[in-house]
Amino acid sequence: MNEIKIVHFLNQFFAGSGGEKMAEEPLNFHDQEIGPGVLLNKILGANGKVVGTISCGDNYFFKNESSVYEKISEYIKKTAPDLLIAGPAFNAGRYGLACANLCKEVSKRGYCKVITGMFEENPGVDAGKGSVLIIQTGPSVGDMESALDNILRIGLKLVSGEKINSAQDEGYFPTGVRNNVQLDTPASPRAVDLLLKKIKGDSYVSELIVPVLDKVDPPEPISDLKTAVIAIASEGGMVPPDNPHKIPGSRTNKWGVYSFLGRNELEKDSFISIHGGFNTVFVNEDPDRIIPLDALRVFEGRGEIGKVYEDFLSTCGNGGAFGHMQEIGQAWAKELKKGGVTGVILPAT
Amino acid sequence: MRLEMGLFPVDNIVEGNDSTFSNGLLTLNFEQLRGMVMEEGKFEDVSFHIALPGDSVRITNVLDAVEPIHKINGNSCEFPGFLGPARTAGDGKTHKLSGMCVLSSTYFLGPQTGIMTCREGIIDMSGPGTKFCTNSDTFNLVIRYIPLPSTTNVEHDDAVRLSTLRISSWLGSLTKEMTPKETKIYELLDVDPSLPKVVYVDQVMHQAPMVQTFMYGKDLGDSLPTLIHPNEMLDGAVVGANYKTSQKVPTYLHCNKPLILELYRRHGIDLNFAGMILTRGHRDNQALKERSAQYVAKLAKILHADGAVLSFEGGGNSSVDYWLTVQALEQMEITAVPIVYEVGRPGTSEFPLVYHVPEANSIISKGANGDKVDAPAMERVIGSKKIFLYGGQEFNASGNLQLTNSDYYATEWALDLNGFVGKDY
To answer: Within 10 Å of residue B136's Cβ, how many Cβ atoms?
Structure first.
């Protein structure tokens, strides 16, 4: 590999200007390594060189964020580094946020690769999540050497395009993405090992840490059904027999709108289910079993509901990815709002 | 209950004039086998094919894979409930042609709708797909069944199952007078009482024809979770009949469940294998799922379990049963470690599960469905030359195929056996 060029970002403290009193110190550019950059250069050896350092007071950065980005952009364009290293910021909150935000900005503008490092409680971790590679460090400067080691190890991979392994294996914060990896040990021995550790009270690591889902609070009941416009929307895979939107029986992000206009009930073969996850024989015999238009028309006729919304929204929920289903839900909400719908029945399978 | 499993490892299969087994070589007279399969008039036609590890072969339409066993002595016959009375399996002496399987490959002529659809089962014997399907590493005799025009799907399925089990046990009987190369003893002897008591909870599928599991010849239907001795599983008490491509559990695996083998291996060393609970997923509604979960946890409690490891067959609906079971176990103070596959596609941040309970904080992941596979063209196709993947695309089976890992046969168990794991990036 050619010797790589690195620009290093520091706050006023790590640049040697001082602590909180100097937090208003403006942006400065230095042609050489300073502070932890000295160690960085030593670790780099023949692999590369710190060609410049950017320093900025913690408060100054946030009070002048957009002009700071412009000036740093000018500087980076001029010095043309392969990699921007910000920090490590350890548990310094404003510094960590500045590192994450700056990396995000530089990465977005596409000038060079970016990397930073900090402690897990630093608010910068959340700020950079998903867009910046953030190396896990200890809470304080005592961890400087190993933090810089790790930042450089991964930073060099970023520049060379070499494969970067999982967050756990490499020591960076998860970005939210998951990938398959093949181990030497099958699932069963791993399961028994994990169980015995947990029973004994030893520390253990779950192979899947489940993200927390949004909670959906049920809405208030409709105050006056007599004026309500009621729609039906379903994931049951109900489509006209020619399946005009070609909705597949599983794992889809497609959906369709079909009209009830002129129908009082759904005869056999007016709709069929293309859903691949349940026994569809009974709903194909009588589509009202899943799209209860017949019942709704009775309520409409008796004036117990205002009217039936004449468009039916349909998709197939079988094996649906969470993200796709969220997108469909949002699109449906928009569609129904636009049509003046005040209540929706969601028959599920 | 003491089971002596005599192993006769198979390392080659050839067609010949006589059906014999000798020194790892299984020689088969296909006409003799044909006579046995056709004698009751249940099929239009049948053919036999050999598929060995490393062959340039793609097998399509695979329903089941069965490792041949033959009972030398003991209480039961082979696959009790199918090949004889439903007497308790798992004791006495059994011979097994190990490392080989009889595969059934067929199709259905009756209408197929919704869940009652047989989905494609593809096994590649070589190439990158081998790590995503089971039985690419076993020496296989494929029986290709052609259905009678008049037969219903259920009749044909039953006939194929019975014939495949029958041929398997007949092959096993070729070793009747022979001494096994190796004998494994399976017996849950008393061990140091201070070792943690671990139970295995195995949740299998039952939904409708094409998605079933049989125990002693009867589908699990509405049955409650039940205790089963692991030896019964090893000795053929449970037969798989789920034809959902990636999710299915072949009979071969029911007889070789990796968690049973692992718990036996460690019994008396660092744990006490306290028993096994078999339950079905996809119960009809939330109340029945909760009832079933409670029942599993209660059975584990009766076994004085300190912990449970769990495995699972099925999709989104069944995963609700599964997580409720983990929750019920943890709430009864039985530490639970479930093995799961993830539903988010690899390389994305899609949500990895359909359902989850906060008590489940020690999970083993076998990775996700969705890795792309460049499956090369194969010299030989056994089964239909055209394949229909889930979603309706049609392909020429012999050609280069752009597949997803879950298009393969029993992918989720292949991921388990081959050490896959989902990791954060």
So the answer is: 24
d(CA A343, CA A334): 13
On chain B, the residues whose CB falls within 8 A of the CB of A239 are none
Query: Taking a C-beta distance cutoff of 8 angstroms, is the pair B381, B60 a contact?
Result: yes
Question: What digits encode the pLDDT tens for the residues A62-98?
Answer: 999 999 999 999 999 999 999 999 999 999 999 999 9
SS3 A217: coil
Neighbours of B16 (CB within 10 A): 13
Tokens of B344: 């988010």
Residue B231 identity = N
Residues 161-200 of B with CB under 8 A from A: 196, 198
Q: B407 CB near a chain A CB, below 8 Å?
A: no
CB contact at 8 A, B236 and B159: no
DSSP E strands in B37-129: the ranges are 43-51, 57-59, 62-66, 69-73, 92-96, 100-105, 123-124
pLDDT level of residue B391 (50, 70, 90 thresholds): low
Q: Give, in order, the Cα–Cα distances in Å from A92 to each of A19, A63, A172.
A: 11, 17, 18
Nearest-CA neighbor of B107 among B150, B67, B60, B165? B60
Place of tokens 């019964």: B232
Pairing state of beta strands B123-124 and A83-86?
unpaired
> What confidence tens digit (pLDDT) does each residue in B82-110 have?
999 999 999 999 999 999 999 999 999 99
**Best to test chain B binding among A133, A196, A239, A324 (most B CBs inside 10 Å):** A196
User: Of B52, B54, B72, whose CA–CA distance to B7 is shortest?
Assistant: B72
The pLDDT score that the predictor gives to residue A68 is 97
Q: Is B367 on the interface with A (CB under 8 A)?
A: yes
- Compute the nearest-CA separation of B291 from chain A (Å): 20
Contact B332, B326 (CB under 8 A): no
Q: What percent of chain B has pLDDT above 70?
A: 100
Among the partner-chain residues B258, B356, B365, the one whose CB lies closest to the CB of A207 is B365
Residue type, B345: R
Q: Do residue A280 and residue B113 have CB atoms under 8 angstroms apart?
A: yes
B283 contacts: CB under 8 Å, gap ≥ 6? B289, B291, B292, B321
Helix (H) or strand (E) holding A118: strand A113-118
- The answer to whether A188 contacts B258, with C-beta atoms less than 8 Å apart, is yes
CA distance B33 to chain A (A): 36
Contact A178 B348 (CB under 8 A): yes
B337-376 pLDDT, tens digit each: 999 999 988 998 888 998 999 999 999 999 998 899 999 9
Q: Are B167 and B140 in contact (CB under 8 A)?
A: no
Per-residue pLDDT tens digits for B165-177: 999 999 999 999 9
Helix H or strand E segment including B307: strand B307-312
DSSP state of B343: -
Note whether B16 contacts A: Cβ–Cβ < 8 A.
no
- Across the interface, of B114, B340, B420, the residue whose CB is closest to A180 is B420
Instruction: Tell me the three-class secondary structure of A229-283, residue by residue.
Output: EEEEEECECEECCCCCCCCCCCCCCCCEEEECCCCCCCCECCEEECCCCCCCHHH
Supply the DSSP symbol for A38.
H
Which whole number is the average pLDDT over A199-216? Answer: 88
Q: Is A46 on the interface with B (CB under 8 A)?
A: no
* Secondary-structure breakdown of chain B: helix, strand, coil percentages, each rounded to the nearest 5: 25, 35, 45
